[in-house]
Amino acid sequence: MQRITGFESFLIQKQRSTHGDIVILVAFQAAFRAQGPLAMLEHFDTIYSILHHFRSIDPGLKEDTLEFLIKVVSRHSQELPAILDDTTLSVSDQNAHLNALKMNCYQTNLMDLDLGGKGKKARTKAAHGFDWEEERQPLLQLLTQLLQLEIRYLWNHSIIEEEFVSLVTGCCYCLLEDPTISHQKNRPTREAITHLLGVALTRYNHMLSATMLQHFEHLAPVLLAAVSLWATDYGMKSTVGETVREIGQKCPQELSQYPSGTKGFAAFLTELAERVPAILMSSMCILLDHLDGENYMMCNAVLAAMAEMVLQVLNGSGGGGRAFPHHHEAAPLLHHQGQGEREPGGKAVSAILHSPN
């Protein structure tokens, strides 16, 4: 007997042999045909046991397990809207669907983490042509669909546990930590992660932390694309300010301890200014202290961002901005303009602000 800890405790009665897994999976499939998604309540051990031996089991069993798990979660996702609208739903049925939802998300998360395993062997295409990496996207899309439903009604007082949202989004962060996530072949996975986190942001106020850049330099272009999309397509312009605020609050001593992280911050800010200069402008005051710091990468990044805003927004040449911004938007730039003779980096700032058209 084994207890899995986390946001919820699931009790594993028995871990079976790989041969036993095949037999029990067939039993789970039969129960699913009879009971629907709630069959997971009685067969949680089955999927967990298979995932526990995932590296060593037969590729055919891996494929069958993944396809069946997707089928179970997809079916539950399709049935939940009607269940959530049922005003006569009993408390026991409500709890049953809530537990099934948690179990489904937990198992899907485990599967997704395993697909993102490290090593050449973990990324090898199965002999019979089943590509595990291609299956990440539908798994992430399934989780996104679940978050888009009004699942809060399954909880008491319609308040979703923060731990549940963290569970669903957890696989995203594990996949983002892999340096290969920025490769072109993983673009579908990146986009699926961006949309999943976008839904978590808009519906549950779950924000991806910019501190990931401090430890994973390869994430600069990935986070840039995500924040830009959330600010434009999702209408969440505040994500730009929150992300920039995290970076702006980093003290020079902390930045000096993580040179690669500083490089990630600098690349992110520079390219963010190129994509959404008008949105970034209102948050620039948070970054101005870095002009007086000793970290030349951050100083150059802030200067480059200011130059981009001058070219695209103040000059009215693009970036979705106006020819002349409101005074409160331009204030951070103009305030620093008059300090050129007194502060380090000031001359460079003044030169940018006075650059001819």
TrEMBL record:
Which residues, if any, are the signal sequence? none
Record domain Condensin complex subunit 1 N-terminal: where? 116-210
Record GO terms (molecular function): histone binding
* Domain of life per record: Eukaryota
Instruction: Tell me the InterPro entries matching this sequence.
Output: ARM-type_fold, CND1/NCAPD3, Condensin_cplx_su1_N
Checking Pfam families in the record gives: Cnd1_N (PF12922)
- Using the UniProt annotation, give all residue ranges assigned to the region (Disordered): 335-357
Q: Which GO terms describe its biological process?
A: meiotic chromosome condensation; mitotic chromosome condensation
Under what name is this protein listed?
Answer: Condensin complex subunit 1 N-terminal domain-containing protein
Q: What is the lineage of its organism?
A: Eukaryota, Metazoa, Chordata, Craniata, Vertebrata
